Amino acid sequence: MSTAAADPGLWLPRPYRVSRCKRELSDTFTLELLPADGEAMPAFRPGQFNMLYAFGLGEVPISISGDPDAIGPLVHTIRAVGPVTEAMRALQPADEIGVRGPFGSHWPVADAEGMDLVIVAGGVGLAPLRPAIYHALRHRRRYGRVCVFYGARTPDDILFKTELKRWRGEFDMLVEVTVDRATRDWAGKVGVVTRLVEGGGYDPLHTVALMCGPEVMMRYTSRALEARGVARERMYLSLERNMKCAVGLCGHCQFGPHFVCKDGPVFRLDAIESLLAVDEL
Amino acid sequence: MKRLHLEGLDALFGALRGAGYTLIGPRLRDRAIVLDELESAAELPIGWTDREQDGGHYRVAARGDDARFGYVTGPQGWKRWLFPPQEVLLRARRLGQGMRIEAATVEAPRRAFIGVRACDLAAIAVQDRVFVHDPGYQARRAACFIVAVNCTEAGGTCFCVSQGSGPRAGAGFDLALTELCGDGQHRFLVEAGSQVGATLLDTLDAVEATAADHEALEAGLARARGQMGRRIEHEGLAAALREHLDHPYWQKVGERCLGCANCTLVCPTCFCAEVEDRMSLDGSEAERVRHWDSCFNLEHSYVVGGTVRTSTAARYRQWLTHKLAHWETQFGVSGCTGCGRCITACPVGIDITAEAAALRQA
Ligand SMILES: Cc1cc2nc3c(=O)[nH]c(=O)nc-3n(C[C@H](O)[C@H](O)[C@H](O)COP(=O)(O)OP(=O)(O)OC[C@H]3O[C@@H](n4cnc5c(N)ncnc54)[C@H](O)[C@@H]3O)c2cc1C
Ligand code: SF4
Ligand code: SF4
Ligand code: FES
Fold first, then answer.
1. Residue A251: which domain range?
2. What residues does the 4Fe-4S ferredoxin-type domain cover (chain B) (predicted)?
3. Is there a single domain that holds both residue A124 and residue A263?
């Protein structure tokens, strides 16, 4: 029996040192990390994720939210929702966490060249899309129109607010933000993100759409895009499932025949749309 | 093919022990055939069988002969020796603000599995694919010697024929035995399936099998095939399962299913595992432990906001579609070897072959 394929480091996180923690929202923060051993970091592609390990507490899948082409720290944007992510919120510079990855499929930024790029995000779903946005900005001329449609619960939940403004101002980019519930000082749009998609601003026949957010939001968004004429084969979405290994052998992330950890998290819509329609799959 | 007399079994056990293997094999305990360490061939369940199996039903009985391998499939598969129910994967230590993390040392003692049935050989081959990159599994797997035993009788819930896995051990063994004892001449036919197996066989006092031996083997295999009352019809099954994810039939099975997870725990191919990180009380040390999980547990599909598969029907659907449709896509083989354990172990007698048939026609 050959053991040639066995990977001794399969489960082994590598310690990374926090170089910066930035509070984004009341419950969301961004960590910048550098390998504790000072060695090089692996490259990643937009949409990929890492397994982040909080000492003794647990390991959770978190997408990379930084710039794939930049030389600099590894960047993750995290919403504190439970024990592991709460512990990560309490991290200070020079603290360490474990990192395993990167894992998974990626946004098709290369295939989308020459096309309009429509990026639709809900809530913290903007974080996994930010590397794709950075990529598009860095190579702005390779794309047609670039639209970012973003939906947040309230104006206080708008992630990367200053960046959204900058993207809108400095680059030739359509950036639209909507909230579910407005507060008094909000002069922007109110309503679901699908409305923004319905508003157009892109050429449906030459558009690649990338979506990340709650599954219902992505379902409605894909319908709105399709109604405008965007083909299913040019829509991509990122899924979330429970993950315990990220390498296809703990069984937790199964979605029909797919392991979301390695076949996803980014899927082309037509590959999974019949499964998306099934409850409790 | 060679032939070994009854005492040859002791010689085989001795040779394996001499080569440094711990023997794992069947013995009778708590009115069941279980797998455990064996010192000698005398500890085998001599004269016992557990052929009496049905939905939610398992009985051992005296055979009235002194067959060593006269049982079929006990409740356990071999997976616990390769993919242990609980395993430490990592150890970590806090160093100031930092940490040191090390992979746990893998214990991979030389083990000889005695009496692996064809269905369970197939199950090991399935898990070889699942755990192809897993260092612990691969180390333990590389350290084992497999003595298969061909089935000349089938158990009440066996359906290996329709799964193409048995009753004859085809591949994946070092030695394969066939026990023949019906004709007053208690003997074993032996076949080597690897170089290691062949080398070991050379040290035993074996003679060439006769034409009569070959005939007795074929007759035994034919008897086992003929005794199998269940089968899964594969033509169109996977497609039907994929297309009928919303069929009301799942609700009907869901009403009967207790969600107890017995089927997944006895199944020799199921690989789902929970990974748990633990910390010492003073917070200075931590470890990561992997333990068996089941898609019937609510936490299995937990994500923030709630469990994905809340209904029992959805969890049963996950189990059945994974076994009989998606496994093939994922690993290029079926997730079911036809060992029948999930049928025997189901407290309410849900039968994978019957549910598959119903859904195929749905
Ligand atoms: C591919 C992928 C990318 C992700 N990217 C991000 C990101 O960039 N930012 C972010 O804030 N969150 C992200 N998540 C969600 C994040 O993994 C969960 O919020 C996190 O696991 C919650 O862990 P917890 O221990 O703090 O909370 P608890 O709710 O106590 O979680 C307990 C356990 O359940 C599992 N779990 C719970 N929720 C989820 C979930 N939504 N997805 C997968 N497993 C879950 C985990 O194994 C976790 O350890 C991503 C999830 C996936 C699958
Ligand atoms: S998902 Fe269920 S059926 Fe599939 S391997 Fe895991 S426990 Fe077994
Ligand atoms: S599904 Fe049932 S019959 Fe098939 S391998 Fe698993 S326990 Fe055996
Ligand atoms: S996370 Fe373990 S199989 Fe995908």
1. 116-276
2. 246-278, 327-355
3. yes
